[in-house]
Amino acid sequence: MESISFPEGFVWGAATAAFQVEGASKEDGRSPSIWDTFCALPGAVAGGDNGDVAVDHYHRVEQDVAMMADLGLGAYRFSTAWPRIRPDGGEPNQAGLDFYSRLVDTLLERGIDPWVTLYHWDLPQALEDAGGWANRDTAHRFADYAATVVEALGDRVSNWTTLNEPWCSAFLGYAGGIHAPGRQEPAAAVAAVHHLLLGHGLATAAIRSAKPEAKVGITLNMYPIIPADPSSEADLDAVRRLDGLQNRIFLDPLFKGEYPADIVADLAPYGFADHIKPEDLAIISAPLDQLGVNYYTEHFVSSEPAAPSEPKPGRRATGSPWVGAEHVSFPVRDDATRTDMEWEVRPRGIYQLLTRLHEEYPRLPIYITENGAAYRDAVSDDGSVNDPERLAYIDSHLRAAHDAITEGVDLRGYFAWSLMDNFEWAEGYAKRFGIVHVDYGTQVRTPKMSAMWYSEVARGNALPAPSATAAP
Questions:
Q1: CA distance 127 to 129
Q2: What is the model's pLDDT at position 71?
Q3: Known catalytic residue: 370?
Q4: Which of 122, 326, 345, 449 could covalently link to 33 via disulfide, CB atoms 3.0 to 4.6 Å apart?
């Protein structure tokens, strides 16, 4: 195969999230977030890890931005920390705003476009104590926070994302208890779905009020759902349920102004419809400028319940995030290669997802805001970090995404997840997604082989012809 060029102006970037990289958890007026509290729960996070230091990005901004510039990145997607900007959900904190202002200025000085995500899961603990995302008032507090950030940064930031992966916030956080705040309350989870979307709509209005020319979007983690047995009605119903809970419950209200009727019916026992007020869907479905897509794998599902499993040693028991579909299981396919997260490597799924969005929903610019893989990396004796599996993963997914572009999908950019190894949520520091290796003891950064390859891709706006290190 020959090299593959991307459209002129295609954005090449990398992404992080505040709690995963910043550290400085008790500095400059920052208040505790739900993740600070969750990390303190016995067995909640692998190794008992926390984000107190993370990769110390808060104190190493200049170094990290210089590294991005050296790699030729055109954009950096980062999140602002709600507890740093409006501690406890209250009045603005100038020290927190000043940090992000310095970050934005440093990026711009290096020719890197800042892409701001307003919420990447770090709800102030004080707001969780008042009910969290299960409480409608949190959506309004989110809009207040969004207005504060846009007022401070909107003169220099053009691209805004309201929420990152609301599926995870609602279902992993409030139903499965796998992520913060660690609740296992299905009714709270479905309330959180609606209030997160309402918060998105209210924040969108706040951004546009402060900066009418801003480009506003939301980032969803979406997956093709594949039946274990396409001839089984039960498996097909499992696909319907999971596609509804993972994809359509967010896409339909955002782009069609309504929730999918079948999922509203499925969630009736949990009082989902009770949270929806007449004006809400008009707020949620306000037109967007772009859509962020996070893609990692497919879901291969069966209606046959999985055998009960015990928590990993030292970890707390968690529940199912699939409200109303707790019986669904995820069989292992023998033909799959897997990442260190045990996720199947299915690059064709990104093509299927992008073309589905193109065919079934209003057509607007799409950005892949996260895509990447965890593997067990180590620094070699010569100081290099060779990660051919990650390189092959990114290469294969970019080729599949390019196939979608040839089908007419308006894909305008790609952000590798993640810029650096970091605190990987409930997995702590055990899983490495970064294209840059971080020694957590010394905080030394070492670009991996995948970073050097990605740098060439970004500078050339093209994928090179496959070699021994890049799988087709």
A1: 5
A2: 98
A3: yes
A4: 122
Residue for token pair 């230091």: 53
Q: Which helix (H) or strand (E) covers residue 220, if one does? A: strand 215-221
Residue 8 marked in a binding site: no
Q: 440 among the known binding-site residues?
A: no
Report d(CA 434, CA 15) in Å as an integer.
10
- Residue 15 has phi, psi (to 5 degrees) of -130, 155
Tell me: pLDDT of 183 over 60: yes
Burial of 362 per CB tally in 10 Å (0-12, 13-18, 19+): exposed
322 annotated as belonging to a binding site for a ligand: no
Summarised one tens digit per residue, pLDDT across range 431-446 is 999 999 999 999 999 9
Beta strands in 287-359 (DSSP E): 290-294, 299-301
Cβ(211)–Cβ(154) below 8 Å: yes
- Which is catalytic among the residues 165, 298, 344, 389? 165
pLDDT score of 467: 62
DSSP 414-451: EEEE-SB----GGGTTS----SEEE-TTT--EEE-HHH
Please check if 424 is assigned to a binding site.
Answer: yes
Environment class of 329 (CB within 10 Å of its CB; exposed 0-12, middle 13-18, buried 19+): middle
Closest residue by Cα to residue 396 from 300, 299, 296: 296
The predicted structure's pLDDT at residue 95: 98
Query: What distance in Å separates the CA atoms of residue 34 and residue 139, rounded to the nearest whole number?
Result: 16
Strand partners, 367: 292, 413
Indicate if the alpha-carbon torsion angle 38, 41, 47, 53 is positive or negative: positive
CA dist., res. 20 & res. 432, Å (int): 12
Contact partners, residue 353, CB within 8 Å, separation at least 6: 222, 223, 224, 293, 295
pLDDT of residue 469: 42
Catalytic residue among 22, 128, 298, 370: 370
CATH of domain 4-463: 3.20.20.80
Closest CA to 271 of 194, 166, 171: 194
Q: Determine if residue 35 is labeled as part of a ligand binding site.
A: no
**Residue spans per domain, the chain:** 4-463
pLDDT of residue 470: 44
